[in-house]
């Protein structure tokens, strides 16, 4: 296709014929009379009457261009409206008209708040006349939308409507603002359209919500010389809107009001005329045999290769195609025409005319025109339907309640319709997902070098940079990949990776399948893969390279070059500095190596972390076969940078193992897969840790919201049915509430359908489960390397714990984890990892140790996972209990205590409840919360605890003394806090107790109760520790226990004491503080001591 010319009848194709006589014979074009009738039918004059001259000069393809130009030139003139100052194309002023941090879209019409309360205005203002613009509400949070003058000065606290000459509407708080504020309008929701109207002739400002007028908001606004009003908005963090100043057709135009940006009226008239001509072509057929024109059924219209029709359409598209590159015309003309075809209902396949029209566009439009037209069409459809409610209604969707209620016939039909809609949506999305996987497969192809680098290695380097940017800027949302994209990218990448992995296995049967995939441990310490400055299990990488350098030599034959080591440590101010004398005394070979290895210019860049600099410059050498180093043996070293790596550095060749350099003796010499696929797998695990897990958890809230709105709607409908007929006012308010709940529920239901299909489907669950198994196998292989396990990045343990939590909490009840293959074995292997590594000395990070402890505490809280702990080898169970019984000092004793309590809960005195009995009186509605687990004690682990305490004479007193010390501290802190609370409550002046203080007070009480339960557990399982006085520590332990129990009883049981008064205050946050939990724990201890008096010495 060529560009259009003005002088020829047709610039795209040469349709001109040699002679009139040859036309029917050569081309199949109809005779002159029939062609004249046809063209006049397609291109009628404006008044519909053909002049006599038209018949004297027949209309042919030779003069059609002139005729068409004359038709399109009629009534072509722009209308000019006064009262406006500024550019003709109105956008947001992102150069000077804003305050705070805002993210503005590329089209300068969408904005997202990125600070406390940012403000921005448009580039055009108005000073007389009636004007309107629209705002699409993308989020329903705190925003103030309206008008302001150039003199308005905003800050992070004051925005539009907070200054004298600015006026705003706030649908979040349902108020209007002009320095002061009053109630106004209705509450808005995501997807609503707010119309902002200003009448500078009358001096009024009004607003509409979805086309419904909210009434005049302000009158007598300031007017006169120098007063002009800009569209403006102020919005809080993460809130977003999209403006329409007139670049697109207004959704709800108001008669008499003009949009700030003029519509393209000339082009619009042309587009509608051309569309009319196109419709005439579709409706008109040519009967060549009869020599006449016939009406055709548009639903079955096809091009069928008719030259006359094709050339006619080409003339139409010669003018129509350039117009379809403009968003206003696409939305007003093309989209409305396509939607009118679908008005009769049915799927797109039932309307072949749409397919025919798309084929015409592809045939008769330039490539860039097709691209721009389809882009604008899709964006217009997205704007129109993004927030539209799903057609099937929803009764109750979300987490299943424990009581299964029978559905009515209507509810069953609605639910089935919703499920069918979800399945149709899933099929459509699967098509897009398959295309995305195919694209990734092309990017992962390593056989398309073509004289250059294969696609896989280009992708691998870009992928690593992508991970580095997202890992280094986790607090800077402006440069991060959106988490929604990360979730989709993760699943598609897993599919593409597993395809190539299994393809390699098919060619190399000795390799592992993707079901057995793991990341070998040598990737974590051989320096071939950059982990940036992410934390390792053993601490900083530079520290590990120093302290474990001998282990690296013995187990992996990896030597760190002293010259490079010193060069790096001199950059790190917090590392131990090496003196100049020690440098001078280095071996000659080391000096030779150090001089040969020049430091890259980017080594001291502040953007690179310490670990990254060390890893990138560490000289690594592999000796094969394994043998001791000679005193003056030279070592070959190579600095690896992501940009400088080659295929050989990754895959290896001729004895060089590439990424697998430094295989430890514990690793079998069995091929796993291609080395590049191992690094991609490692990146997938890192990507899940960066943002995918957080996004999975965030989406669960939608299901909870659906459940809440469904219950609210059902409750409102019941109230409507019970409302007395005489209370018309109450009935109308209930109907309004019913409408709000119904609209919100439909919106959330539609969103939930997308989430269940794209995020929580069975296929996505299997991907997360596969990732969990990969992490478990990787941790198991790394654990076998002994001290080198410390090099493993912390995120592998985090992903193992988080992916299990996601499978257990996020995908149920739609999909159960128990349906996954090897579910029981996977639970047991993960339990073994938690049991072993929560007290692993190789792991030094406080955060990861706390996470392991919390994960183990959650594991023993549920019956199925507790059984998994009981299935691990006995030696590991005993070691776990020994670590739990270690003295509480110098470690997170509270979490350890919770684990022991959960192993005991259900066995103690009055300790078989799910919900605290005294709370059932004050909060009966919380009695059946699904998050409250029934007690599930473990007698097997209790037996291990009893055996350890009885057999180890030193463990029992040290453990119990630490428990008693912590109990004394926790209860003393609790008493001190309730004294302060009581004093604050008795003051005459009005005061409030800090909620954080109440929370700490309740926590201290809960800790005291749990410590008492651990003492009860110990006395029940091993009473001889206290009652067998042949033991040297028994008498002392019993005395301490008696003193503490006496202190507790004195404080709690005295009549009208401090404890009583605070409990009777019923303060929010102190619901768990009551007589029952602490007294039954003390009673359990005393009863058990009396029962076991036979052991007294």
Describe the structure concisely:
This protein is of the alpha+beta class and 1097 residues long.
Describe this protein's structure:
The protein has 1097 residues and is of the alpha+beta class. It is 50% helix and 8% strand. The chain has 36 helices and 19 strands. Strands 3, 4, 7, 12, 13, 14, 16 and 17 form an eight-stranded mixed sheet that branches. A seven-stranded antiparallel sheet has the order 2-5-15-8-9-10-11, with no helix packed on it. Helix 10 packs across helix 12. The termini are far apart. Mean pLDDT is 80; it is low at 1-27, 389-404, 570-639 and 925-931. It catalyses: S-ubiquitinyl-[E2 ubiquitin-conjugating enzyme]-L-cysteine + [acceptor protein]-L-lysine = [E2 ubiquitin-conjugating enzyme]-L-cysteine + N(6)-ubiquitinyl-[acceptor protein]-L-lysine. Keywords: Metal-binding, Transferase, Ubl conjugation pathway, Zinc, Zinc-finger. Pfam families: SPRY, TPR_RNF123. GO terms for molecular function: ubiquitin protein ligase activity; zinc ion binding.
Q: List the uncertain runs.
A: 1-27, 389-404, 570-639, 925-931
- Shape, principal axes of CA atoms: globular
- What's the average pLDDT? 80
Number of helices: 36
Determine Rg (CA atoms, Å): 38 Å
Largest sheet, strands/sense/barrel: 8 strands, mixed
Which range best describes the helical content: under 10%, 10-25%, 25-40%, 40-55%, 55-70% or over 70%?
40-55%
Distance between the termini: 106 Å
Decide which structural class fits the backbone: alpha+beta
